[in-house]
Amino acid sequence: MSPFDPTDVTGTPFANRGRRGAEYIAAMKALWAPDPVEFHGDFVDVPLTEFGPKPVQQPHPPLYMGAFAPVALTRAGRIADGFTACCAPVDAILAMRSAVQDAATAAGRDGASLPTVVRCLVNRTDEPLPDEGRPVAHGTWDQIHEDCV
Q1: In angstroms, rounded to a whole number, what is the distance separating the alpha carbons of residues 35 and 51?
Q2: Which of 4, 29, 57, 111 is positioned for an S-S bond with 105, CB 3.0–4.6 A?
Q3: What is the pTM of this model?
Q4: What's the DSSP call for residue 59?
Q5: Prior bond of 47 cis (ω within 30°)
Q6: CB neighbour burial string for 24-53, b if at least 16 within 10 angstroms, e if fewer
Q7: Are 112 and 105 in contact (CB under 8 A)?
């Protein structure tokens, strides 16, 4: 295995991480529902049980998903309550956000209402950076301010 193989730590195959993550979310939603609860999937098996404490937010806490790959963006649109993006140029983030919203709409949800949170590392420069390919929150304070409004 390479030193960066994601199965090194968890022993989890990288190839099915998307299906696995989606099922984990479905299992959490089941556990947060009124008791008694149960869930049976390919990766998670919860026999009929009572589970608590339940979340204060109902029906569950808001679940935000990040994604870059098209299949992951579609999954986020189907099951997430919001989209979180980072470390990409503004045009790429807007395209990803649009893909998530379109997938949500295709799944019968109100895609336009899904919130987006952008996480970023701030890299302030003295001189303005060209807008083409400029990552979010990179550039002068004025450029960074414009990214946030």
Answers
A1: 7
A2: 111
A3: 0.75
A4: S
A5: no
A6: ebebbebbbeeeebebeeeeeeeeeeeeee
A7: yes
